[in-house]
Amino acid sequence: MRVLVLGGTTEGRALASTCAAVPGLEVISSLAGRTSAPLLPAGEVRIGGFGGVDGLVAYLRAESVDAVVDATHPFAATITGNAAAASSLAGVPLLVLRRPGWAERPGDVWHRVATLPAAAAALPALGERVFLTTGRQGLAAFAGVDACWFLSRSVQAPVAPVPRRLEVLLDRGPFTAEGERALLARHRIDVLVTKDSGGSAAKLDAARERGIPVVMVDRPPLPRSVTVAATVEAAAEWLRRGSAAACTSG
Ligand code: NAP
Questions:
Q1: What are 228-244's pLDDT values in tens digits?
Q2: Is residue 89 located within the same domain as residue 176?
Q3: Measured in angstroms, how far is the CA atom of residue 79 from the centroid of ligand 1?
């Protein structure tokens, strides 16, 4: 069974590694090609966009793909929408692998917003020294917020437009609560902005401990009627079952 894993996440890499040990599963991982030195999944990897829904349909057919797992980041809404449309058009089963979002805990001071521009609008009332962890592509939304100073952390350097008062920290996780605590203290951060990505909560733990408010950007909605798995193991099990069924019917 040939499986296309749309990746660019820790979960995508973990799924590719897990599937490499499953007899009868052949995985092709796909990356968008946004970072110049990506962490590569095990096995076959292709890099670059497909060319929208039509391009993805053509790819699924040309490569005889039997199943698609969308393991992209919860905020990569375009590729997730394209995967849902293309899988349906090509008649290929799709599973969306999405880690759960974060849940507010006692001591947290969260301000939930729907979009990055809404986060930018909320900031001046909440703090002056901002730790921005929404990725380099989202920096433009904060470009007009001159009342705040920003520390932005991303894997690759951002491109203009960016906030006027900006320090860029190039780094890639995983991060520890101890490291995050030290970072918040060193830069005298008084407000944190993050997408509700889920996964490691080190920065949220550190913000709670220091009594720092968090602007939490909500996830975009999933396409309707997609099947969702919350863990790599559940996604691997879905593939194992599909592979077993394919062997039986084949
Ligand atoms: P996006 O806005 O949803 O997608 C934009 C376009 O990029 C898609 O239409 C597709 O181009 C291409 N693309 C995206 N993911 C792809 C993949 N895995 N393989 C092949 N093409 C892909 O995506 P994004 O938010 O820019 O994210 C790009 C990648 O970075 C994703 O793989 C995602 O998992 C990863 N990532 C995103 C975030 C985030 O916050 N958005 C954070 C961490 C990692 P075509 O239409 O030409 O096919």
A1: 999 999 999 999 998 77
A2: no
A3: 6
pLDDT the model gives residue 250: 52
Q: Is 105 domain-assigned?
A: no
Which amino acid makes up residue 215? V
54-73 burial string, b = 16+ CB within 10 Å, else e?
Answer: eebbebbeeeebbbbbbbbb
DSSP state of 126: T
Which residue's alpha carbon is nearest to atom 40 within ligand 1?
75
One domain, residues 126 and 77 = no
Q: Is the CB of 72 under 6 A from ligand 1?
A: yes
Residue 154 Cβ < 6 Å to ligand 1: no
- Give the domain range for residue 27: 2-100+220-249
How many domains, in total, are found in the chain?
A: 2
CATH code, domain carrying 70: 3.40.50.720
This model's pTM is above 0.85: yes
AA letter at 109: V
> Which ligand 1 atom lies nearest to the CA of residue 138?
40
